[in-house]
Design a protein that fits this description.
heterodimer; A: about 475 residues; alpha+beta; 11-stranded mixed beta sheet; 16 helices; 17 strands; about 15% strand; B: about 475 residues; alpha/beta; 15 strands; about 35% helix
Chain lengths: ~475, ~475
């Protein structure tokens, strides 16, 4: 088997090959490490590789197979962890100079679950400081590039995660999403990313940004089945996280190929407030959403009540960062991302009334979706309003000639952090400039499985994995 | 059977008697209405009776039984609704002059579930304005009296619900608890009340944001089994409420008699911060906690290091009430309850960062209980720091002769609104002045059933239902 084929294999297939000893975890791990060593210097996806740890874990995984023990679900699968998530004994920087040399003494709960499931930890993937913006660069490690166009951003904040997966540098990446941070980079890098229902995957410890109950941990992968496989391991209640949901006893992977008989799919190109989207995205989404008709699903456009949740979101976001960073200002201000400082200071200036106002808008926007989901089983939107944009800016301020706010390009993602609905980004086409286009698939509360099933159905008729980024 | 015995029967037993046609719903509804007409003028528990509606519903119940249709869980049982939950077509005031003539256009979700389960709605029960203070008094309907001593308060804010149940004016009462509002009046009136896990019972619709993420709906009843029954009827997810928990697929009623074989129970008289406890309360509490050993459960004192969370709640209240009601002060000040005016004014000038600090402290508080529940299955505390105090005040300024802060008499309630843990109050004795004393039983996240089971076990060895308040 060619090395590249191993690198781009699905995790699900790897688990089978490791189990039957057709391949060992050590072989797979070495091939992927070799690829990371070749390609990572170009794109900067991994900020802290952990190859020694990976090799050790791969040996242990192969031992388990040899000893004929019960094989855990992700035994021997190379996996990356976002640098916002603590891994015991491994530098975890949160993308911030403040934590440049921080070595956690405990695994976060999701890392513990991945380790218990047999994952081989390849390293930490790059993120903007505390995940605060939708592109990936920081003052320690610099920018993560887009594998499809090295002058474009990978998106963020899980940009390192998405890029690593797109480049065949590990089949599974753990991402997190507080405003679109799994979905944007998955969209920009042409991979699949799922933000599960709020609380589906526990977050613990919730450091260092505890305030806004927006953030969710989820998978970024090349195959929809791999998202199910990884989520089956990560999900489930944890008592230390008061927002984690009770046990969902369904195994997603077992049911992923079941395609529901009749589904009503609604789609929206504006969610009732987005001003403009890139015309190539618009065309690709309309074309893609109608492909669901081949399953006998009913597809139609949804009209949303006009309500702009941008201010609600930015209020929570700014106040959160203001509160978290204020204690560090005196010592660290000049070593923080200057935009983060501006945001945090703005957050500290906001009057208290902005928060209840945000809570109110959040409730109202949730009610709009409640109405939508009374009529539809699935909602579809573009993932972002634009394809990957140039490195060096945090947000494009103009889309197809129309001026937009700093959140304009991500108008479709953060609303589902406010509401907690499960939402995935799936590749659905290419721009003329050869950049990936992503379609967002949103389900009702708790219906993560349906989102996965609908994603899998789309993947079956419109697979994207044959196309791989080329590096010279 | 005499009429009083009929009125004080358990909901479960009455359900049985209706189903076996020993009584019709119409007969018992008339008996209860007759008692309300006699006793309510004394205690002021019902603010808006709905006898016409009750009679109509009772008749429908009886017709349904005769025609052999499937019966709801609460078939034919006279039930009251706190004036906080909209009941379609009926005046719903929230205890405020602002809503004195507000006729609800829709049913609250729980009210809808109670109706679907066959409950007969007797009327709305009195509450403090917007549930803000922990005694029941407002400028429309005045004070609700304690049936055990007419010079004492019923507690609040669900004081009407508790006073009605203690007086035999119904079989089930729906209450709401944003800071102790089910548990405090249930304790003062000698009843069982449970605030389930946050999200277990949907809360929709709500007015304003004042109790966002704090309010829980639940039963106030005379028998633990009746709480299980009522919760079975009202619990479960609803898509209109973003925070409801997923389906549990168990019936509490079916399992409430099961006794967990091993339980580690801890108890605390101060949670690490409470300063003063009435001597009778302390003595009855310590006598009661020992009784749990009879089930082979271990019982020991637990140590807490918790900062008094009263400031967290004060910050929430002042900021949120200021947001909801600040603009009303100009025209309504004279018609707003003075304590509420103070709270609204306290929110002036607060910053978003003040709110953020409270949210962060809430997380810290949760983690304290997370640590506790790693070691223990159940926590016991007194329900309140003292028994029912005199009418006419919102809080006692002294306990056992010592000057205390306005929330010092109820230190054990709010922590479980801030953390969302399930918590019940159960009668555990009478004070030397003949007033009920309550024991609080707190469970880990989602362990509502364990709380009910432990409550049921205690009820079996220390039943209280033979004691009834006397009316001349």
């Amino acid at each position: 088997m060619k090395k590249e084929d191993i690198c781009f294999m699905s995790a699900h297939e790897m688990t089978k090959k490791i189990k039957t000893q057709e391949l060992t975890s050590q072989e797979i791990t070495e091939v992927i490490i070799e690829r990371i060593e070749k390609i990572n210097p170009i794109i900067n996806a991994y900020c802290t590789p952990t190859f020694d740890l990976a090799r050790e874990m791969a040996i242990e995984a192969d031992e388990i197979v040899k000893r004929n023990e019960i094989i855990p679900p992700l035994n021997g699968i190379p996996t990356s962890i976002k640098d916002l998530v603590p891994v015991k004994g491994v530098r975890t920087t949160f993308g911030s100079k403040i934590f440049e040399n921080y070595i956690p003494s405990e695994d976060s709960i999701v890392v513990k679950r991945l380790k218990d499931a047999g994952c081989v930890i390849l390293g930490k993937t790059n993120t903007p400081e505390f995940g605060f913006k939708g592109v990936t660069d920081n003052l320690i490690f610099g920018a993560t590039l887009n594998p499809w166009d090295l002058e474009k951003t990978s998106g963020g904040s899980s940009g390192g995660a998405a890029t690593s997966v797109a480049c065949g540098m590990g089949p599974l990446a753990q991402g997190s999403d507080g405003g679109g941070s799994i979905r944007h980079p998955a969209c920009f890098c042409g991979v699949y990313g799922l933000k599960p229902s709020f609380g589906r995957v526990p977050i613990y410890p919730r450091t260092p940004t505890p305030i806004a109950n927006l953030s969710v941990v989820g998978p970024i992968v090349r195959y929809v089945s791999d998202a199910a496989l990884m989520l089956d391991v990560m999900k489930g209640p944890f008592e230390g996280d008061r927002f984690s949901l009770p046990k969902d006893s369904t195994n997603y992977l077992d049911h992923i190929n079941e395609i529901p008989d009749k589904l009503k799919i609604g789609y929206s190109l504006d969610l009732g407030y987005a001003k403009v989207i890139n015309s190539e995205f618009e065309k690709a989404i309309i074309k893609s959403v109608h492909r669901f008709e081949s399953f006998g699903f009913n597809v139609e456009e949804v009209k949303f009540k006009e309500l702009d949740p941008s201010e609600a979101f930015s209020t929570l976001w700014l106040i959160n960062h203001g509160y978290d960073l204020e204690p560090y200002f005196e010592e660290w201000k000049d070593k923080l991302d200057p935009i983060l400082v501006i945001w945090a200071e703005a957050g500290l200036e906001l009057p208290a009334s902005r928060l209840p106002n945000a809570m109110k808008t959040r409730n109202e926007f949730y009610q709009n979706l409640f109405e939508t989901f009374r009529q539809y089983d699935i909602l579809i939107t573009p993932t972002t309003a634009v394809p990957a944009f140039e490195i060096g800016i945090a947000a494009p301020r103009n889309i197809d000639g129309v001026d937009v706010s700093p959140t304009g390009w991500q108008a479709f993602t953060f609303p589902f952090n406010l509401t907690g609905h499960p939402a995935a980004s799936i590749p659905c086409g290419w721009t003329n400039n050869n950049l990936p286009i992503g379609m967002q698939i949103i389900g009702k509360r708790f219906e993560d499985l349906l989102v996965l099933q609908v994603s899998k159905a789309f993947e079956d008729i419109a697979p994207w994995q044959d196309k791989k980024p080329i590096f010279n | 059977m005499n009429r009083e015995d009929i009125c004080f029967m358990s909901a479960l037993e009455m359900r049985e008697k209706i189903q076996t046609q020993e009584y019709t719903s119409e007969e018992i509804t008339e008996i209860i209405i007759e008692r309300i007409e006699k006793i309510n003028p004394t205690i002021n528990a019902f603010c808006t009776p709905t006898f016409d509606l009750a009679r109509e519903m009772a008749k429908k119940s009886d017709d349904k039984l005769k025609s052999g249709e499937k019966l709801g869980l609460l078939h034919g049982l006279p039930t009251s609704i706190k004036d906080q939950m909209p009941l379609k077509g009926i005046r719903t005031t929230y205890g405020s002059k602002l809503y004195e003539n507000n006729i609800a256009e829709v049913d609250d979700v729980c009210v809808g579930r109670l109706k679907n389960a066959g409950a007969v709605i007797l009327g709305k029960t009195n509450m403090s304005p917007f549930g803000f203070i922990a005694v029941t008094n407002n400028l429309i309907f005045g004070e609700t009296l304690n049936p055990w001593n007419l010079k004492r308060t019923s507690g609040g804010s669900s004081g009407g619900a508790a006073a009605s149940m203690a007086s035999g004016l119904g079989y089930l009462a729906l209450g709401a608890d944003g800071g102790g509002s089910i548990r405090t009046p249930a304790c003062f009136c000698g009843l069982y009340g449970i605030k389930p896990s946050f999200g277990r019972v949907p809360v929709y619709p709500i007015t304003g944001v004042s109790f966002d993420s704090l309010v829980h709906y639940g039963p106030i009843v005379r028998y633990v089994k009746d709480a299980a029954l009522m919760l079975d009827a009202i619990k479960g997810p609803h898509n209109a409420d973003q925070y409801t928990l997923p389906e549990e697929n168990i019936s509490y009623l079916e399992k409430v008699d099961e006794k967990p074989s091993h339980l580690k129970i801890g108890y605390s008289l101060d949670l690490g911060f409470a300063k003063v406890i009435d001597t009778d309360v302390k003595e009855r509490f310590l006598n009661s906690v020992k009784k749990f050993e009879e089930f082979g459960w271990s019982v020991e004192p637990a140590k807490f290091k918790i900062r008094n969370p009263e400031r967290i709640l004060l910050t929430y209240h002042s900021i949120l009430f200021n947001y909801d009601l600040g603009s009303k002060l100009k025209d309504w000040r004279d018609k707003m309850y003075p304590d509420l005016v103070k709270a609204v004014e306290a929110g002036v000038g607060a910053t978003g960062n003040d709110f953020a600090r409270s949210i962060a402290r809430r997380k810290v508080l949760f983690e304290k209980f997370h640590e506790y529940f790693k070691k223990y299955d159940i926590l016991l505390t007194p329900s309140t720091g003292l028994p029912a105090f005199e009418l006419g005040i919102s809080f006692p300024t002294k306990i056992d002769g010592k000057i205390v802060s306005p929330t010092a008499w109820m230190p054990f309630s709010a922590p479980f609104n801030l953390t969302g843990l399930p918590a019940a109050t159960i009668p555990c004795g009478m004070s030397s002045e003949g007033l009920p004393i309550g024991l609080q039983i707190v469970g880990n996240r989602f362990n509502d059933l364990t709380v009910l089971q432990v409550s049921k076990a205690f009820e079996e060895i220390a039943p209280w239902q033979d004691r009834r308040p006397k009316f001349d």
